[in-house]
Structures are given as C-alpha cells and as structure tokens.
Amino acid sequence: QKEVEQDPGPLSVPEGAIVSLNCTYSNSAFQYFMWYRQYSRKGPELLMYTYSSGNKEDGRFTAQVDKSSKYISLFIRDSQPSDSATYLCAMSVANAGKSTFGDGTTLTVKP
Amino acid sequence: ETGVTQSPTHLIKTRGQQVTLRCSSQSGHNTVSWYQQALGQGPQFIFQYYREEENGRGNFPPRFSGLQFPNYSSELNVNALELDDSALYLCASSPGTESSGNTIYFGEGSWLTVV
Description:
The complex is a heterodimer of chains A (111) and B (115). Chain A has no helices and eleven strands. In chain A, a hairpin with a 2-residue loop joins β6 and β7. Helices cover 0% and strands 55% of the residues of chain A. With 111 residues, chain A is mainly beta. Chain A starts with a strand and ends with a strand. With 115 residues, chain B is mostly beta strands. Chain B contains no helices and eleven strands. In chain B, β5 and β6 form a beta hairpin. Chain B is globular and about 40 Å long.
C-alpha cells in the first residue's frame, strides 16, 4: 500500500463549479502538506503549502488538512478552463529532504 | 516560470546505455533534489544534493548517481539503462534541505525514453 493515496480521476466539471480534490495518507509523521499543479508534459508548480492541521485560503483555492483522519483536501471555487491540469498532493516529515507524492488527479474544466 | 532549467528536454536511449541529465538551480538555491515521474504516477524521490554532497536517497539502485557542482548545478547519471527507466526526470531546487517549504521550484523536466 502506498503512503499517499489519491483518486486518479479523471474528473470533469463545468466552468464555475466547485472542485474537491482529496488525498489520504498512512504516515502519521507527515507534518507538511503541499498541492502542486502540473500541466501536460510540464514540471509541477506549487499551489498551496500547509503546516499541520487546519485550513489555508489563497484566492480561489482552499487547502484543508485533517491529521486525525489523515486526510487532506484542495477546493477550487469558480473553476476555470485554465484550471484543467493534473493536481498532485505531496507530504513530508519535519527536516526531511524528500516529499512523498500522490499519483495525481486529472481535472478537466469544460467551458 | 521558475529559474530552474533542465537539459536535454527529450532524449531517446537504448537499453544498456548510460545517460546524463543536467539541472541549473534557481539563483540563491543551494539544494537540488531529483525525482523520477513515470507516466500516470507521481514523482518519486531519487536523491538530494546539498553543498556538493548527497543528502538523502530514495529507493533507487546504485546505477542512479549524481553530482552537484560549486555553482550548485547538478547532474543525474543513470547507467545500464532499463526499459522501466523511461520517465520524466524532474529537478527541484530550494534554498535549504527541507522539502516542506514554499520555495521549492521544479524545472520542466527531461523526458527519457529507453528502447
């Protein structure tokens, strides 16, 4: 079983919809939680970064971490066609040099 | 666009050959991490270099090796290529060794196909 599980989708929504992306994990030592966006054949781009449990909002994006359930989410409000990409969750322990990634969820936002 | 540049962008190699991939880190960043991303999967940590020394390694065999130079640029070398080595190889630079910060930047990657 992988340390980080992510529903691969694909997920298709109409423009303007609220999108919910989720990951579960098994390593209780994870303290840092990241969401990356990856366009086709490009490198990942960091979207959101959260430490420990709680919520963090940045524009149309909200990241939630529930450490008690080992569950993290990314919400995208008012989704746009330009949000069409693969979304990767990633996690790390304190003072670690590596991030552990999920396999990504592919999102398509239709005009 | 980040300041992390990788070369080459695409290459095709034959099984058993050797390959060298290169990465120039963001200005001011002294740490480079390498990841392998197979099609349909998330990036897998290969190793990290900090001040020219390996600082952590993932579950990859010794035929995956690396270097970091005084200017903090880095190389990833893979010997005795196998078909399963076909993947996108990503370089990430950061101003420190922790992967948890919000100042980690990935390059666009090098697509390696082994035939």
